[in-house]
Amino acid sequence: MRKLWLAALVLMGLAVAQNRGGSLTVAILAEPPALDPTTTASAEIARILYDNVLQGLVKLNAKGEIVPALAESWRASASGLTYTFSLRKNVKFHDGSSFTAEDVVFKFNRAKDPKSGHRHPEYYRDITTVSARDPYTVVFTLKQPNQDFLFNLAAIESTIGPKGRLDQQKTQPIGTGPFKFAAWDRGVGVRLERFDGYYDPRLPYLDKVTFRFLPDPNAQIAALKAGDIDAIGYGVTPENALALQKDANFKVVQGTSTAEITVGMNNSKPPFNDIRVRKAMQYAVNRDELLQSVMLGFGTKIGSHRSPAETCYEDQSGMYKYDPEQAKKLLAEAGYGPGNPLKFTFSLAAPYPYEKRIGEAMAAQFERAGIQAKLEVVEWSTWINRIFLGGDYQMTIIGHSEPNDIGVYTNPKYYFKYNSPEFNKLFTQYLRTNDPKKACETMKQLQRKLAEDAVNIWVLNGPFIAALKKNVMGWWPNQPTPSMNVTEVYLAK
Question: pLDDT, tens digit, for every residue of 200-250?
């Protein structure tokens, strides 16, 4: 059996070698506001750059496993307070400079500095010191055990660029991946090219990749059928997926994702600073109806901030069963009724079809409970700046694609404006245990706590649906992290 397995690998390698080269054009829904994931919040940055251009010490593979990247190996002390990483040798950045331990030390000293502007400082706050034992050995010392430490190192925010080169990363990112950044054509797309100095000489298989911004799902389909693009990387609408499945020229990839389609409520401002109102909103939503009528059965109901694809998931979708009369009762307790209906603005982000369509359908469901939601469609840059960063909204909807990101609820400044000492205590308990079973039970408690507090309305786990020309091979079947990973994609000839 081992011989057969090795023979299969050899044959696969020969097939790929015969199909090397070529260009790939991939449609994505939105243009990122910048290209530096350490300072800018946008899943589109990760979709374009994660592992393709930018790499960290470790990464998530297609199965969601943490595997080596710039670190060949690592070991942790029994106490969980010291991690030692052995770095790859002879690794080059795309500008020709050598990758060494100094780049790692610079990166994480900046990341753990709350004044540096680095995103997600909570990922790194347990790091006491990061030091270079020699040019290819880095030692992290933690002040306390952190259950998520390695997972956080696999995040897009933990990717590493050349020491001191910060401003350039916003528009011309330099990494160590198999592709190098070629150009950002504003409003059109981002172009990548093969990096001939990549440390794994097998990769990449393609010469060029273009990520083209096409926010209209129907325009994406037209471009695919016309041959202008080779793939729709994600977010194919259910009806388009069903139609393409019948076309012999294309194939549809369906899999799991870590995206929680989340209706965010601003917990710090009326009307959603009242838990009675937030609970009323839960009862006013019919998830089964949304799943069937809007998503045509694609996706999975959820009721808290974790996806079924992740470990320690617990289904909370049954906590608030659809009951518009119960919603009316809670609203009456909060002072709303026929003479004074609950009114608010529901902001929808323009580029994302799942979220926009679900939001529109939910507004109709709200009306059955006497709730008046004024729909507002905003451009992506407006959503990022006014809603996500500024917290200036009442209700919105977006897909939270980052895996294992429940820790954002410990930040009262995050755009939900949720502030719960009890949740924070539970999260600390989760982080500090070295017992995986205890950590898993605490993770389930965290999910229950968010659902009990009705912080947001978690509608469903968004499906991963991509559409490809028949000759595009090696596409990830699932999306365990936001990434259009094309490092091993090739075109069959």
Answer: 999 999 999 999 999 999 999 999 999 999 999 999 999 999 999 999 999
Residue 203 and residue 183 in contact, taking contact as beta carbons nearer than 8 Å: no
Task: For helices 324-333 and 275-283, give the axis angle rounded to 10 degrees.
Answer: 170
Helices 436-452 and 421-432: angle between axes, nearest 10 degrees? 160
pLDDT average, residue stretch 474-493: 95
In this structure, what are the phi and psi dihedrals at residue 233, rounded to the nearest 5 degrees?
A: -65, -30
pTM above 0.85, yes or no: yes
- CATH 3.90.76.10 residue spans of the chain: 54-170
d(CA 357, CA 187): 24
Confidence check: pLDDT of 14 > 80: no
CATH placement of domain 54-170: 3.90.76.10
Contact 460, 245 (CB under 8 A): no
CATH architecture of 179-256+464-491: 3-Layer(aba) Sandwich (3.40)
Q: How far is CA 61 from CA 48, 151, 154, in A?
A: 15, 12, 10
Question: Is the CB of residue 284 less than 8 Å from the CB of residue 371?
Answer: yes
Residues spanned by CATH 3.40.190.10 within the chain? 179-256+464-491
Please tell me the CATH code under which domain 260-461 is placed: 3.10.105.10
pLDDT attached to residue 353: 85
* Angle (nearest 5°) at CA 438 between 434 and 443: 105
Q: In the structure encoding, which two tokens stand for residue 263, read together?
A: 């209706």
Q: What are the tokens at 477?
A: 């079947």
Predicted pLDDT of residue 481: 94
Q: How far apart are CA 326 and CA 56, in angstroms?
A: 49
Lowest mean pLDDT among 50-59, 311-320, 429-438: 429-438
Q: What integer pLDDT is reported at residue 260 of this predicted model?
A: 96
State how beta strands 343-349 and 372-378 pair.
parallel
Q: pLDDT tens digits for 83-97?
A: 999 999 999 999 999
3-state helix, strand, coil in the chain (%, to 5): 30, 25, 45
Point out which residues pair with 194 in neighbouring strands.
Answer: 179
Residue ranges, comma separated, of all CATH 3.10.105.10 domains in the chain are 260-461
Question: Residues 235, 353: contact at Cβ < 8 Å?
Answer: yes
**Residue 442 belongs to what H/E stretch?**
helix 436-452
- Among left, alpha and beta (phi > 0; psi -120 to 50; other), residue 153 is alpha
